[in-house]
Structure to design on (156 residues):
């Protein structure tokens, strides 16, 4: 089964590469030192410092493997592709027709999605609804709370 393609903006790619570099260089060394210190305390069978450090080491190694896999399958999108049609990398302004609020979102791949900073996944309900549409289009988004209506006010 082929691995899933990870869609990233150039900014997202650099962020993942930086995290990987930090984990491989700094964090690995730090946790190895913690393990060494815990072993120096003596009996490791009842040493919570040792257990904690080993758990952290396992987490770091797992995250390194995940990041390496993501970067291996990464496809960088050009966030300047089109101002006419909503696509990956597009920054859009959506008007909530039901409540009148405007929100700005950037459409990104799921690996880079962060709703807290208005980066929504192309696989999310809103992301799926707006992809391929043009300025002025009204889209319906089916969410657990019901049906939402948005108008694409602008594509940046």
């Amino acid at each position: 089964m082929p691995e899933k393609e990870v869609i990233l903006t150039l900014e997202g790619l650099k962020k993942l590469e930086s995290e990987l570099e930090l984990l491989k260089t700094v964090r690995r060394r730090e946790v190895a030192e913690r393990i060494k210190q815990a072993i120096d305390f003596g009996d490791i069978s009842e040493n919570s410092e040792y257990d904690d450090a080993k758990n952290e080491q396992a987490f770091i190694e797992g995250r390194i493997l995940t990041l390496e896999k993501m970067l291996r399958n990464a496809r960088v999108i050009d966030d300047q592709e089109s101002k006419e049609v909503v696509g990956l990398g597009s920054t859009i302004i959506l008007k909530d027709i039901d409540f009148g609020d405007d929100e700005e979102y950037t459409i990104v791949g799921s690996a880079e999605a962060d709703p807290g900073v208005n980066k929504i996944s192309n696989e999310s309900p809103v992301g799926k609804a707006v992809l391929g549409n043009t300025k002025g289009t009204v889209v319906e988004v089916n969410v657990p709370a019901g049906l939402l209506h948005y108008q694409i006010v602008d594509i940046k």
Remarks:
- The chain has a mean pLDDT of 89.
- Strands lie at 6-8, 74-76, 91-96, 102-108, 119-121, 138-143, 146-155.
- The helical segments are 10-40, 48-72, 125-130.
- The chain has two domains: 6-76, 91-155.
